[in-house]
Design goal:
By secondary structure, the chain is an alpha+beta fold. It is built from 65 helices and 43 strands. The strands form eleven sheets. It has a seven-stranded antiparallel sheet with strand order 26-25-24-23-29-28-27. Strands 40-39-38-37-43-42-41 form a seven-stranded antiparallel sheet. A hairpin with a 4-residue loop joins strand 38 and strand 39. It starts with a strand and ends with a helix.
Amino acid sequence: MARLADYFVLVAFGPGPRAGSEEGHGQILQRFPEKDWEDNPFPQGIELFCQPSGWQLCPERNPPTFFIAVLTDINSERHYCACLTFWEPVEPSQVRPEAPACRGEEEEEAGERPSPSALVPPTQLFAPKTLVLVSRLDHAEVFRNSLGLIYTIHVEGLSVSLENVIGNLLTCTIPITGGSQRTISLGAGDRQVIQTPLTDSLPVSCCSVALLFRQLGITNVLALFCAALTEHKILFLSRSYQRLTDACRGLLALLFPLRYSFTYVPILPAQLLEVLSTPTPFIIGVNSLFQSATQELLDVIVADLDGGTVTVPECVHIPPLPEPLHSQTHSALCMVLDPELELADLAFPPPATSASSLKMQDKELRAVFLRLFAQLLQGYRWCLHIVRIHPEPVIRFHKAAFLGQRGLVEDDFLLKVLEGMAFAGFVSERGVPYRTTDLFDELVANEVKRMRADENQPHRVLRHVKELAEQLYKNENPYPAVTMHKVQRPGEGSHRRVPPRPFPRLDEGTVQWIIDQATAKLQGAPPAVRAEKKATVPSGPPMAAIVERNGAVHANSARRLEVVRNCISYVFEGKMLEAKKLLPAVLRALKGRAARRCLTRELHLHVQQNRAVLDHQQFDFVVRMMNCCLQDCTALDEHGIAAALLPLVTAFCRKLSPGVTQFAYSCVQEHVVWSTPQFWEAMFYGDVQTHIRALYLEPAEEEDGPVMKGEVGLAEAGAPGKEDKEEEEEEEERSALDVASEQRRLWPTLGREKQQELVQKEESTVFSQAIHYANRMSYLLLPLDSSKSRLLRERAGLGDLESVSNSLVTNSMAGSMAESYDTESGFEDAETSDVAGAVVRFINRFVDKVCTESGVTSEHLKGLHVMVPDIVQMHIETLEAVHRESKRLPPIQKPKLLRPSLLPGEECVLDGLRVYLLPDGREEGSGGSVGGPALLPAEGAVFLTTYRVIFTGMPTDPLVGEQVVVRSFPVASLTKEKRISAQAPTDQFLQDGLQLRSCTFQLLKMAFDEEVGSESAEVFRKHLHKLRYPADIRGTFAFTAGSSVHTASRQPRTTKEKSPSLRTLSRNLVKNAKKTIGRQYVTRKKYNPPSWEQRGQPVPPEDQDDEISVSEEPEPSTLTPASALKPSDRLTMNSLVERACCRDYQRLGLGTLSSSLSRAKSEPFRVTPVNRMYAICRSYPGLLIVPQSIQDNTLQRISRCYRQNRFPVVCWRSSRSKAVLLRSGGLHGKGVVGLFKAQNAPSPGQSQADSSSLEQEKYLQAVVSSMPRHADAASGRNTLSGFSSMHMASHAPSPRARVTTLSNPTTASVTRRTAPRGKWGSIRAGGRSSGSSLGVDVGSRLAGKDLLGTPQPNGAPSEPGFLRPQRAALYIIGDKAQLKGVRPDPLQQWELVPIEVFEVRQVKASFKKLLKACVPGCPAGEQSPASYLRSLEESEWLSQIHKLLQVSVLVVELLDSGSSVLVSLEDGWDITTQVVSLVQLLSDPYYRTLEGFRLLVEKEWLSFGHRFTHRGAHTLAGQSGGFAPIFLQFLDCVHQVHTQFPMEFEFSQFYLKFLSYHHVSHRFRTFLLDSDYERIELGLLYEEKGERKSQQACKSVWEYVERLSKKTPVFYNYMYAPEDTEVLRPYSNVSNLKVWDFYTRETLAEGPPYDWELAQGPPEPLEEERPDGGAPQSRRRVIWPCYDSRLRAQPDAISRLLEELQRLEAELGRPSERWKDTWDRVKAAQRSEARQDGRSTPSSLLMSSVSHHRRSLGVYLQEGPVGSTLSLSLDSDQSSSSTPSSGRQAARRSTSTLYSQFQTAESENRSYEGTLYKKGAFMKPWKARWFVLDKTKHQLRYYDHRVDTECKGVIDLAEVESVTPGTPSMGAPKMVDEKAFFDVKTTRRVYNFCAQDVHLAQQWVDRLQSCLSDA
């Protein structure tokens, strides 16, 4: 029984502290009883809660209000304060004299009494007065009625004593629970019935939950529910206090069976608002008046009950319920709240059923949440660990096992709930095995199966909800037929009447007397003890996952388990070979949970008496499998794998020597789980539970081996993977909870001694387990080699990161361990003690925690603390012996290291380090989706030689077979080295590893074997770095080959010069150069602008080389005139003349040195030796081609205008159009401004600048004059543009600009073939980088957009005047930024074409991305071709190739049409070189031969100073710059052209790849250093001749190619069949470009195939040495795309035939003929054969295979129909020399006939073409069309534009009757001669045509007539 009410209090308004304020405070006038109850002291602060908004006076009398506030005391007891407030007129004592009237009314006299009339005087103020009832029971209705009764008696003046009523109220007692019904009366003729709920544990909610859902809606309430469970702060706002109370009560009711244990204040008074900023979670209600005060709360979820909104701040994340529970709950709530929803769509809805009452709906909603908790916590009792039974149960919950078995390890919501305070309370309250049960216990034990079955059937769910709701309703209202309450109420409007008197002061004595009477009576009565019905709490079915996540994934898991079982049985039967074969499959299978469980079970079967001694191999296998199991265990071990293995790691062992045994635990320590405190706690409690259970079981039962159960079965308890037999046993055996329940039931009946004995037994059980665990933990935490402290340092801080018990690994421990690792001092003892200390601290913390929780006595605990250090020390000593002996073990048989074959001169620097080569992102090698064998991971060794990094090894997968895997790259090509932690395929530990990436597109991703110490790995890295970046270029392999390089301190200049004379020559040359340059050069050097990629950065030291090597001699000497060559210079000159440039200049007819010295005036150009001392330009060759008219001494002045002094020089001349190609560096402004603003127009330092720019102008004029076409050109007005300098600077298109067409049929030099049909792709096209797009000005100039009306389709300007303006004589292609300052030619003989080029840094960035795309470092998440293509596109490599090709084709066009071009980009040594080389390659067939290509590279790249060393970061100085693949990009462009024109190149694609590889490999000296000057200084340039005979190794790549070409046709292209005058015009659109297979292909069998000596392995025995009479299939072999070299395995037919010839010759004993001679003979024979047939065909044997290839394509400039830019494009039809027939016809006939058939008759195929105006059909206008007369097909076709491929219409000439002169009709073109019109009459209609002039019209008529007559 309990008191209905504890206290009755009367609280009134008291004036506030400040005078004149209407704010007051509450005063307690009276309280009953005046003395506190002993069991329940009077709660403080009631006066604040009576008026939560503050005590205020009011001008009118408000109706009485009622609400219930809740106060929580220090013991977490809740006190319900029912408050009824009414208003009374203010008494004078309540207001200070100067208090103003409320709301601005006139003041009232303080002493004035209210008149006794019924009406309220207008100035009257009213003060609130509150009756408060304080109770610990929550009977809201009873409180409302009781206080109402007291108020009614007072207001209505009933003749009932208030003291009696209050006394009765305070003495009324009612039962707390049990469902009894009690009628009470307070002695005023009233009657109330109180019903108590059936069970105390279920909350009473009336309608509060239903109201909460009505106010906020389903989603919001679910959010609040989740927020409350995950401990967030929740604030309710409403204008009604009662609503706030109800909402808070409703939310708490939903949380059942969890109890909310944080701050709970349904109504918070205004004075206490600062409570809202408390850091702890809370549920609080506040009146909406104070909403503004809640605005700045950042982490509070605000629910506005009146507005129906819930606001969640950004920083707060509420984890949602796990699916599918969330959606199931949501739909169930919908069904309850809106039953109509299900029927809304029915055609014939059933008659409306009456909705549930609000009270019933409330219970249904609660039932939904009750079901939710039952599903969420289903099986929770299986995860309870009972640690102590007596004297009080101690219960722990195994969170990890619960999460793991529910399949919700990742679920944020459940994790937070389980870690919350509410759940901790739930465990301690509901975990007790013997107690009274309630609805939730029954639900979670018995109804779970039903709930799972009902999941997808809404009506059954609803039925279940209603059943539960009935029970909940019955709990609150056990007696349905309640007698009506009878309580008096005040009359209507009674509050407005003035009561006869204020609320009277009550007589304390009377009330106290009534209370005392009642108390005395109660003390006399016997205590009513209600016997609690306790019982064993049912555990319910074992757990199941909420949702079976990977249901279908492991469909074949039974097979996997079979494999695991077999492997283990093979291991224990000693069948090691069998086991080894299965091991990789087992290790893969162990990724699955079922296989890991199976492994632990199988291993348990092989343990007898807790010990299993294995031999070394068995031990090794078992440890590997255990490690594999453990590596996927998280720190919490949710699936109990580590728990199941823990007893095993102390059972399996091997004998190392007599008396020394190594246990498995010393090999499985490196796993996170062992250093996780929560894991050890759960394990400890589990074992304790087992032993406590065994303590109470009958001895008979105990014999069954409960110890085994404890060690092993625990982790399995309730695990889903158990077998049937175990489950039956489980049912027979009583669980620990059952045992505990039985013991708790018997406890009261036991005698005191017996009780003491049991408590003592339990305590010592826990204590002994604690000792056992201290040992176990030391086993797994102390590393085998305690000097290393390896294990702990890797996991130092892990304990901190974990949740609740995170005190385990504190900072001190982490700190000490980190230090011990870092110091590496060699004081082993110090380190050992450090490890020991750390482990001792870890174990001590664990012991403290578990022993205090399990109630171990303090003496025992102290004893443990003393024992732990001894245990650890003892274990360390044991381990020392084990460690010592294990070192002596014979090493595991690892595969023999395969030594790589080395090149002559290549030496090993570091012998093989054992590593595993891991698969990278290229999945071909690892099997993967491509299929094929898993060649990677491979086990082997990495070797570092003076030339390469080489891996050789074998695949780890034993099923692949004995394949040797080789991956290597030159050390010099290393671009990035990264340390990684990788997992070796055989072990489960993370090993140190390295990832090496090279610019030859190789990636070595290696994990070092454990035998490789970190020191060896470090040594490897240092050596690698030293070899990659030698201090001096002489340190590279090309110089050191053969001179043992790995003596650490090598002098930089030890290489002995073989030929002293050459050396002295070089020295003389350099000395002279230094003299010549003198100080003048040095001072000038200062003004060089920073080079392109370094602008804006300090110039790196290597750029200063020039100053360093220039001696500042005082004498300023001028340049020696060419005529007076000193004898000492002669030798130099001869050497220079022999250089490639001179040979080429001679071939091109640009003059020889002798002719230039004698000044043969007839030649327009001459060779000048002005730079022979490299005095003018360091990076240019010694001999240069300049215009004849330019004096040598002016060249120096001109050179100042150009960056790096690279002034324009001629490098190629077209043999046909005589146009020349020039190259130079970009222009730069002089003076200081120029330094910083090189891109702005120069502000010249007057005289000097002017003179040099005049010189420059003269120079350009000289170039123009040297061209035959333009020598006598008048005023070149009709040039590409009429831009003035102003327009030039402003980049605005000029309206005067003229338009040029390059298809000029009247120009003799431009043949029809030069400009066939086709179109240009825009230079601005494609690519996202700002790249080399032509500026808009060029566009508008060359394309003539909108300048003269609409351009014509044929590229002619629009109608007025058919002008054919001339082209500019010289086009200067330069950076947009640099050309601003150039003054245009006054005569406009040269034209500026500004283009934007990409910078070197963009090339670098693009290359990095390309590398990552082609050779990704790690497997991509999504393996799809799309991801590769996406990364390829993002690299923008192809768009840079596209731009290079585009600009080159533009230059080719200009040159071909007779204009010269000067390419003047950046510093003149990167993009300039690329463009100039490509232009020559496309224009001149000579450069497409092997010899020519060599010459091109030597001339343009080596002599003209491309900075190979700088761009390739060859030395230490260039390390920071990184690798810029400028030359590689050029070779890629050549590859693109080669792919499009395979018959035009003498060299093969392999040749290009070979150069790509070796220009970075440093095997040859060819591509070293930045210029000829540097090569001379090092004595390289002329040494080759002197040394060539003597030295064995080739130092020049060309020499090597030459030698190799004699032996093998590998560099030769059999399809080579050139056309002599052929200019190539490749497609450049990105869609036409191919990714070069140099980037993607690899051969793991032999490594890169570009070192020919290494790549040619032994011949394949299957092919050559087959046994006689062997079946033909013996020659077959499997070729793996990434392993074998396909070319070698299956050479092309011609190579095969040549090899066969050589073999046969060798068999016949003849000296074998060179392949080239054989090939030439065959070709000659074929040619003569063709001649006898009377045809002349291009000489190729392979014609038929390439008939469909483009041989050449026409390209030309024209105004695009749309474009504003220079549109660059290519035609897709066959052009001049190719066949019009399709590939199908080609296949049908012999190619040679095809090639000859239309060869001469090309003119007949497109006999004649041009623009004609055609009159449309009736009423249609005249239109310009492009007409093509085709004699072959006998038709006249017309197109919209010249570039169209789609024919608009055809006039069949067979139907033409006549061609007659015509007359202009309406709408005909103006300004055209009448005679230009003609008509063509056909059988169907008459066509009217108009040509551009009379001459053209006549030509058309003639052509048509001749066609008709031919027919």
